[in-house]
Amino acid sequence: MLASLTREILQSLRVALQALGAYALFFVRLLGEVPRTLLRFGLVVEQVHNAGALSLVIIMLSGLFVGMVLGLQGFDLLERFGSEESLGSAAALGLLKELGPVVTALLFAGRAGTALASELGLMRATDQLAAMEMMAVDPVRRVVVPRFLGGVLSMPLLAAIFSLIGIFGAQLVGVQLMGVDSGQFWSQMRSAVEFGDVMEGVVKSCVFGVSCSLIAVYEGYHAVPTAEGVGRATTRTVVISSVVVLLLDYLLTAAML
Amino acid sequence: MRVRGLHYSFAQRAIFTGIDLDIDRGSVTAVMGPSGTGKTTLLRLLTGQLQADRGVIEVEGEDVAKLSRAGIYRMRRRMGMLFQNGALLTDLDVYENVAFPLREHTRLPERLLRHVVLAKLQAVGLRGAYRLMPAELSGGMARRVAMARAIVMDPQLLIYDEPFVGLDPISLGVVLRLIRRLNDTLGLTSIVVSHDVHDLSTVADSCYLLSGGGVIASGPPGTLATDTREDVRQFMHGLPDGPVPFHYPAPEYVEQLRQLR
Description:
The structure holds two protein chains of two kinds.
Chain A: H1 2-39, H2 41-51, H3 56-80, H4 87-125, H5 128-134, H6 139-177, H7 182-192, H8 195-221, H9 227-256
Helix pairs in contact in A: 1-6, 2-6, 3-4, 3-6, 4-6, 4-7, 4-8, 4-9, 6-8, 8-9
Chain B: E1 2-10, E2 13-22, E3 28-32, H1 39-46, E4 54-59, E5 62-63, H2 69-76, E6 79-82, H3 94-105, H4 110-123, H5 139-151, E7 157-161, H6 169-185, E8 189-193, H7 197-201, E9 206-211, E10 214-219, H8 221-225, H9 230-237, H10 253-260
Parallel strand pairs in B: 3-8, 3-9, 6-7, 7-8
Antiparallel strand pairs in B: 1-2, 1-4, 4-5, 9-10
């Protein structure tokens, strides 16, 4: 019983290590192709539009609601200590350092990540990638890398927009609804938020951008070329991205505190 | 193209156990065989998408197995391939699909590129459909656009993987005629993989019949049609039972019924 359990654990570890190795090799391959892809920047811009611009509505709406909730909860909490004028700094720090990058990454994985994975999976299933290979066009260079870079560039921009809209949402609830003084709200925020806090959010969103985009293009590119395979790749993209984002968030927070 | 002693297995199952093929320059060669005999696998081996376990595949005297990745890409630039479903890029329209290899491999001025693309579309009769998206094309039209794309780089070898699947009789006739006409007018060499015996016989110069991991018959279509060997006869005349049995291997019928009970 114990022996078989140990065997199973070792086997799972081996599979996990193999997957990690495959991810690392694929990442190195992508990085190797980045300089040449940047020479055809139009392809990347197109993907920034697909991954970034098309995610804007969901990011802005979510940012607004998260900010509004933060405004309500923050006001309720701070009022107990008689320091509701600190709402601005609390909301801004929460959004810039934590909620902005993390929630944006989770939403990105759900919207753009699944779109990337299913698009690449379908291209594999309908022989489009094989056709490119036969036309002596490397699909990794022509299709995968521009999508990867599109995701990497979009994420920090989306996270910044999320945080800005979130702060506006918190202000809307805190100042307009709950009656926090507007001057206090903004001045507290200005004095509390430092450059390092903003950079923490930027670093996090860049790291999440690389991870989420890598996971999406890897899963899509290696999807089993069937309807079930593409579905599984899409699901794996969301699940793996979410777990990795939360794990990396903890590690990055611990490293940057 | 020359193939000698080709061996290939997948998932511990032997697909090919020593295949020899000779594809003559300027000919249309048909590769036929029942489903699951590895016809598409053979094409993937010939084009360097898969690596053979043993044997030699030579394209214009070059051993495919010894080519680097760049060498394989150089070889493929002299080849065109038509996939079963056309494999058109779904985010590009017909014009851009045909222009795709030119844009990737050449720096032709837009005006010249337009001339080449429209000429190729004219050759397959779809110049008027140049702005349509792949989703707006019928199966036959998609196959013809894929043909235009396959010949846009003026290849020496054109490979067709099951080009007749799912086509209505008119489209099938068009594709058949195009295979022969493109081969002759452009001076190509063509390999057509299919199990459509009768239609293929009308355009092929020579045929190879694959079964059981090897070539069981080869020669001009007329010779294969009159071959009296049981396995060749079953395939060429579409007999339901023979060396390829009608029934999938199963235990005794009564025994199986008892087990279910």
